[in-house]
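Sequence and structure are no longer studied apart. As an example, we show below a sequence and the tokens encoding its fold:
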Amino acid sequence: MEENNEVSMFKSTLNYGVMLGLAMIIFYILIWMFDLFFESYMAYINYVILLAGIVLSTKGFRDSIPGGIMSYGKALGTGVLVSLFSAVLLSVFMYVLYKLIDPGLIERTIDESIKTLYEQGRTDEQIQAVQQVQERFVTPFTIAAGMLFQIIFIGFIMSLIASIFLKNNERSV
């Protein structure tokens, strides 16, 4: 019986993860289309989407369990798996975006970070050093890998907190 429950948890988290990943991809397509890619507040909106996806998927999975009993660990696992699946999907999209759809986006990303360094009052030597490193290491792959780890890490932190409220150790009547 437990094995059956594990399969349904995997299927459920995969489905929710794909839906969340698609929602985040649509969000990134929109901010790319409307040239809002480098607006800092967009990252916060992405985190809200991630949190909503984690909460809704964990609640949805909990409500599908007979009796609705879900431990903190299972709630945490659900949120982390959903984050993982959505992060993989989003990372693949980011790779395709930077590599195939808009290869000039890497140059604009580096230019934006240089602009930020100037605004912070960094010296020309510091800025040149950072620019050399970025030109060498900022690639579609490193951006996608960074996105993967960022979404998984932030999703883990959000799941730690959300699971406190979404667990249900009491049997419903």
Notes: The chain has six helices and no strands. The chain has a mean pLDDT of 92.
